[in-house]
Amino acid sequence: MSTSTEQFADVSATTLLRFATAGSVDDGKSTLVGRLLHDSKSVLADQLEAVEAASLQRGQDAPDLALLTDGLRAEREQGITIDVAYRYFATARRRFILADTPGHVQYTRNMVTGASTAELAVVLVDARNGVVEQTRRHAAVAALLRVPHVVLAVNKMDLVDYAESVFAAIAAEFTTYASELGVPEITAIPISALAGDNVVEPSANMDWYGGPTVLEHLETVPVSHDLTACHARFPVQYVIRPQTAEHPDYRGYAGQIAAGAFRVGEEITVLPSGKKSTITAIDALGESVDIAWAPQSVTIRLADDIDISRGDLLAPSSDAPATSQDVEATVCHVADQPLTVGQRVLLKHTTRTVKAIVKEIPSRLTLDDLSQHPNPGQLVANDIGRVKVRTAEPLALDAYADSRRTGSFLLIDPADGTTLAAGMAGESFASAKAVAAGDDEDGWDF
User: What is the pTM of this model?
Assistant: First the structure.
């Protein structure tokens, strides 16, 4: 790989962290996010003044930092559908994109959206309640989505007298559960979001804890997911044929490189047709380049005039994925209406959408003990289960463990366009033994 590619990947990996927060209702997630933004000096003066004024109206002496995010709750009370709120902030050491996901069990589906691109998930637990079903559900979603770093934030330690024994018991239970799911890295941090203990500044009330604060961990956690090191994949979004006097024979295939790198002179295979050609030119930002890598948006030109349209996938001939009409995957069901055997759906994979039918639902995951409930017949909202789908046309799906971008898909209701389920092709959870063996010391490879 060229030096320029390595430099590009290194800069993007070390300066930006995408992370998601998750937690049950009243675990203090809004307060944690507010405290993180406030203590890292990421709140504008007028925002803080508004929070202080609202807090005084409520009879509170100190600003209620949860109000920095409670606008979402007000919107939900008005009946507005809430998905995921993204917040951007930065410190001297790193930039952050925070996906703040709702905590109620009925909004678990939204964690799938927030965590799908996250490199770290912060799972909150109320120290008084310990690990509950929603905690286990959040851990399972993080594991399914191959989020490589999970932080267990044991909140409200001030309400249990900052007891080390309480924290240790919760951390041990969660770590055991998440490890069985195959999560490669779990970091437990005792905090009090309300008082600010171990959020940005170390706590004087928990001198028995010698680990990092939440912000310190966010600033230093290694982010090494180099998309350029993955299998090269280019989903075609648009075919450019100007047919003008200036460009009479121009034929380019535009899109965003999903993973890997493409080079001029490289032989590629067009999927699902299987036809082959050679890259003659790559246009990026109006200029010709010899190499392009994920996630750049480019136009690729080929040596041969091949029937290529939106939804086709370009891949190096030496590393082309197999195509199949039979998809076996793990899905998180996100719709209110159930997913049933025999149901006709649309399957959207990258830029390709095809008709499909649910042939079988072999099992549904039981979150309490991670056992599989066989042949449930259907999946309802927030269920996690295995499905077998038959598509009308062949698809070039990678295993989700190899590529989050080209191993994922959506199941859609053809009647109204509602998203029914988010799917991850291939095996569901990573093997805990494989993680322990250190197959990838930095976590899952994307």
Answer: 0.78
